Amino acid sequence: MNKHNNIESFISGNMGAFESLYNTYVGKIFNYINSFIYDPDIAKDITQNTFLQLWDSRSNLDPNGNIEGYIYSISRNLLFREIRRLNIHMNYAIHVQEEMKEEEESGIEEKISRDMIEEQILSLLAELPESRRRIFMMRWSNGLSNKEIAEKLSISEKTVSTQIHRTVIFLKSKIGSALMTVISISSINL
Fold it and tell me: What are the RNA polymerase sigma factor 70 region 4 type domain coordinates in residue numbering (predicted)?
């Protein structure tokens, strides 16, 4: 059977003619695709899909046309589609990794900065009278309200408020308003 008759037979749905085309071109198509992506599993899938698409589109073929060119054209289109898909996935993965890295670095920098500021505040608090330091720490570290602190220490809320206010003024004078905001002291109701 000559090549032309084999193609006509394939177009009419002859499985033997299809197997002959498959056996003739499967290795070439696989090598062609793998030379671009260097992934035998993906190359094998694209090769299989090439021949499935060839079979599905056989009724549209020209018996006098270039069957080899048509097979390569199918494989090339499938290959480019796969490369676009892989690039989209890779670009997304890179984007996600970069975002995670930025968030992680930002979080680390923020923690280091916060830790350094807290250390500085703690050393400054050591300069204060014990009672004022204790009131401030109950508010800052333990998150107690002025009322809760007053009850625990058996003093008035006004005394608590005054002591916290004096401590905040002292700290602002030593480290500045901006740093006070960073460590959330601004949440203290004066």
Answer: 119-167
